[in-house]
Amino acid sequence: MAHLFPESLDGLTPTRGEEIVFAHLKRTLTPDGAHWAWYEPLVAGRQSRRRPDFVILGPEYGVVVLEVKDWSAASVLRGDAADVWLRAGEGERRETHPEKQAREASFVVRDALARVPQLQHASGEFAGRLVFPVNYGVALPHVSRRELERLVARGVPFHPDKCLTREDLERQDEEGTRRLKAGLKRLCDICFSFALDDALRNRVRAAIEPQTHFFDLREEEPAAAAGATQVTRVPLPEFAGFFLDAKQERIARQLASPRTLVYGPAGSGKTIFLVARAHYWLDQKPDARVLFTCYNASLASHLRSVFAVKGIVPDGERLTVRHYHDLCGAILGMEDIHERRPEFYTALEPKVLQEMARRDDIPVFDCILVDEGQDFTRRMMEVLVRLSAEGGEITVVCDPAQDIYGRWSVDNLAPLRAHETEHLVDCYRNTAPIFALALAVLSGETREAMGLERLGLTRPEDMRRFGPLPELVPLEGRDDLVALIHGVVREFDGSGRSLGDLAILYPDRHAIPNFAGRLAHSRWASAADPRFLQAPEEEPGDPADAGFGTLMPDTERDQGAEPEPAHFADALERELRGRGIPVEWVTRDFASKAAYDISRARLTLSTVHSAKGMDFHTVILLGAESLGVRQGRDRDRAAALLFTGATRARERLVIPYFTDRGWVSELRERLREIAEDPHLRG
Questions:
Q1: In Å, how far are 49, 313, 549, 641 from 531, measured between CA atoms?
Q2: pLDDT given for residue 455 in this prediction
Q3: CB within 8 A of 252, min separation 6: which ones?
């Protein structure tokens, strides 16, 4: 199916002529499955930014840039190659000649396309030139062909072959499609057919409308030290990145609704949509102040990298990217807010609201964008509402299935008052088997809250991306786990993927405490630990998973030895670094969270909590046997952790385990069902 971007003109201000051209393209051209067309894309040239009225991409003529004019023949008085004089009441007005406008816009488009190597001939006599032509023309929906010829006869310098007239744009049947295609061909000074697939279309889209494209951030890093496993980056064979779909783009472009709640499953592009929303605000509202906030620090750090790659400076005068507690710390003047004890945070919002009521110098924002909204309580929402300028916008995205803190309630949204609700329905991140396994752990109540059936969200069997089954891997000891990780690293090395696209995730700081003892000693303790879920959430006052408490392996416990403090992730990091594998332990402390950069070619070691909002090619998810399966709230919390962790994986999910406890048996049964379902295997 071809695409028209945006899919509708709702919330925009087109001229009547632009409406006619848009409707005609939508009805006669795009349904053929071969064409893509854009209305007013923001094209970034080397020295300018232009918005051509339309850019059309087709396999028979390449790219055509259209300038649309609402003129009637009677309104045109005279003209030359540069300007046209039009009747205006009792007087006249001068406008730039539309052919000149279209030609100059085509230069900007060609310049943008030429900066993409994959759009150029790699060799031969045309090496370095675009694989398709770029042409331009004018659309005059209110002028007939005969009227245009009369204008030319009067000395108005139009080139009829460079113009689409009323006849080219009025029929909406097969004949109308034929006429439009013939008219577009007529506009082309150079015209030839070429191979056009979705990969090429996406490259064109990224070039002419970069605000809708989110590049792969992983960059090549120097080789590791001598003797270490060498991780290199090679050019990706296919285009790497994400695009807004038509619905995401429609919502992102509309700036009319003051309060919007957007539901979407994992991988539906909620964060991508918010980044685009911020981009549109910054572009269309030059004086606007935008706040982008979320709950966890590592996601905020990741978002700063995303904006930086797109050429937008975060934390500047116009755009602020901060996680919630950092924002509160700024209001209270507390640089050490992350070092407070847990009880401090139970009374945080009243302190912040009181401070905001007392001062008149607290900055407010025209647009507030909230990622992972299910992590925010009602009092947190009250703080954000107070930070909103009069008439300002607040847009919240959320997924009840990822309620890993057990906070989600519709009542949390009460401070927003009346709000519109939108739903993103497609999962783009995961393969069908991964998404099916993740959904299988959720309760019926949670699935209902997600609206899987009611809202028509993507079902795994309807997904178009397939891949290998998630792997449930039994282990017996430390060496097995380390060997498993080392094997995946070697596969990454052999494929040229960056280690930044590999993550080891564990549920929380209490889920798998005995791993520390196992990694430090030859004898392994029991896999299930009764301390799990004593405090299953990260508190902002505890520096990012700092310490599992005092851990002791069986060998020392049996001998009555004094336990040694240890952290599972610390022990694992040392073990992997000792084998030459670069590792970034994201949740070592708050500073490591704030400094996290996914572009580094290092294996990511993190809690599920701190990986929210991010994704990786491969995820090794630990702790399935330690997550309890008791009914009720505990099960829902554990299921949310599994769901969130599993859906971080785009292509491959590996779940190691040491005993048949917790969720292991249930996951094994679900995998068996997925393996037997032909709709989930492609």
A1: 58, 44, 10, 17
A2: 54
A3: 244, 273, 276, 277, 279, 280
- DSSP 8-class letter at 127: B
Give the closest residue to 507 by CA, choosing from 589, 432, 569. 569
Are residues 402 and 646 in contact, defined by beta-carbon separation less than 8 angstroms? no
φ and ψ at residue 163, rounded to 5 degrees: -130, 135
Q: What do you get for the CA distance between the two ends of the chain, in Å?
A: 20
Task: Report the CATH number that the domain containing residue 498 is assigned in CATH.
Answer: 3.40.50
DSSP string of 32-89? GSS-EEEES--EE-SS-EE--SEEEEETTTEEEEEEE----GGGEEEE-SSEEEEEET
| Structure tokens given for 552 | 């002791």
- Are 515 and 528 in contact by the 8 Å Cβ rule? The answer is no
**Which of 519, 495, 618 has the alpha carbon at shortest distance from 567?**
519
Q: In this structure, is residue 366 part of a structural domain?
A: yes
Domain tally, the chain: 3
> Containing domain of residue 569, as a range?
478-680
Global model pTM greater than 0.70 = no
Chain centroid to CA 554:
45
Coil vs helix vs strand at 259: strand
> Rounded to an integer, what distance in angstroms lies between the CA atom of residue 656 and that of residue 623?
8
- Least reliable range by pLDDT among 61-70, 234-243, 261-270, 637-646: 234-243
Alpha carbons 121 and 133: distance in angstroms, whole number: 12
C-alpha 350: how far from its chain's center?
33
Domain of 284, CATH number, reads: 3.40.50.300
